[in-house]
Amino acid sequence: MYVKLDKEYTLPDNMMVHFLIVGSDQKLSALIFLLRRLEESETSIIFASTKYLVDLIVYTLEKMGIMSVCVYGKMDQIDRRDQL
Length: 84
Description:
This protein has helices at residues 27-36, 51-63, 77-83. It has 84 residues and is mostly helical. The model has no long low-confidence stretch (mean pLDDT 82).
């Protein structure tokens, strides 16, 4: 899957953004519930704030039988700050 946004704050016509507000202790359960409701041909992008959370999500999805691929960078905090 390749996603390119040409303009800030706009999405391609075939892409949707959804937000769901849940408690911290229910986020992973809500994610699994939502992903199971998708059609087999549909894909999703899930963002997480840390490498640890990405690994946790991928591990959990695999255990639940949901195929996933993770992508994350290894930039340290000093380099991230310099990018701002």
